[in-house]
Amino acid sequence: WDSTVVGLLHCSFPAAEADLLYNGYPDGAEITDRLILWRPLVLLIPLRLGLTDINEAYIETLKHCFMMPQSLGVIGGKPNSAHYFIGYVGEELIYLDPHTTQPAVEPSDGGCVPDESFHCQHPPCRMNIAELDPSIAVGFFCNTEEDFNDWCQQIKKLSMLRGALPMFELVEHQPSHFSSPDVLNLTPDSSDADRLERFFDSEDEDFEILSL
Asked: Distance between CA atoms of 114 and 105, rounded to whole angstroms?
């Protein structure tokens, strides 16, 4: 798959709580009351943007993700090298290499963990965006519900970006073509192998899972 669907699924409440329509509060609840339920949210979205190389159609969309105020950067790299990408300049990605071998850090008597050595010891580096491995994970942080709603709007605008493909989509409900465990008639004790075999078991497909 070249894109990922991020679903914003609505929970179903019992009949006695049918009036809980907005984030666990009645529709007429005060905004300040609604904000109490919100917790800071970190979104890590794994993606594959091509087969062996990144598809150029996703590059502009990826650049726009770095420009969002909610962006935490991108986890990725190239073969045998993992990097943390924090931005871009032109056609180059700016990255940090946090891999540093060091002794384990012991908490102090007060319970604090010294983090002086947790930071990268080397300045940021650059690499051409075309060298990026297609398997990445984009990260976002929404401190408030307003941040999250703003992020949703920005992602929807990215889907209309001319000359670029969206890396993922937002949907209000689970798409009908996404099979659920109920549809697959799986029991809670089904093994992972059973789940995979049933998920891909279709007369309409020309492939099968081979056991090695």
From this structure: 7
149: left (phi over 0), alpha (psi -120 to 50) or beta: alpha
Neighbours of 29 (CB within 10 A): 16
Strand (E) or helix (H) holding 61: helix 59-67
Residue-by-residue pLDDT tens, the chain, 212 positions: 444 444 443 333 333 444 444 444 555 555 555 556 889 999 999 999 998 899 999 999 999 999 999 999 999 998 888 999 999 999 999 999 877 777 777 777 777 877 777 777 778 999 999 999 999 999 999 999 999 999 999 999 888 888 788 898 888 887 777 655 554 555 555 555 555 555 555 444 454 555 54
CA distance 33 to 38: 10
Q: Encoding tokens for residue 171?
A: 């949907």
CA distance 77 to 137: 10
pTM flag (> 0.85): no
- Show the tokens assigned to 143: 């401190």
Element of type H or E holding 146: helix 145-158
The one-letter amino acid at 201: D
3-state secondary structure of 152: helix
Give the burial class of 30: count Cβ atoms within 10 A of its Cβ; 0-12 exposed, 13-18 middle, 19 or more buried.
Answer: exposed
